[in-house]
Amino acid sequence: MAAIYSLYIINKSGGLIYYKDHGTASRMDTNDTLRLASLWHSMHAISQQLSPVSGCFGVELLEADTFDLHCFQSLTGTKFFVVCEPGTQNMEMLLKYVYELYTDYVLKNPFYEMEMPIRCELFDLNVTQGVQKDRVALLGR
Known about the structure:
The chain is built from 4 helices and 5 strands, in the order E-E-H-E-E-E-H-H-H. By secondary structure, the chain is an alpha+beta fold.
């Protein structure tokens, strides 16, 4: 099973509203996570504008030597991205699963204010369980 290092959710304005570290490597500090989220939001927006093909939805995969970054953008502009081991498969399905959890546990929460940081224990618990589950069981649903 491939390792998932971290999961991020960025609101449509580019603000980091959720971050979860799942890796065993050194953890980034808060400023670094905020910078990464802001940078990814900007790169995603620029890629949509620079695309020679109309209807581009931005960067969905960034491959590097030591990690892959997979991104899913919802229709409302909220971006979900995961940093994982190179070559990890089915991350799009995992991100869509996290989006389902987001709609079920965050957006349906009457106390959640849109575009604000996510502080929902059930969402956090289910995301952690989803990432730690056997990948075949999670993605075969």
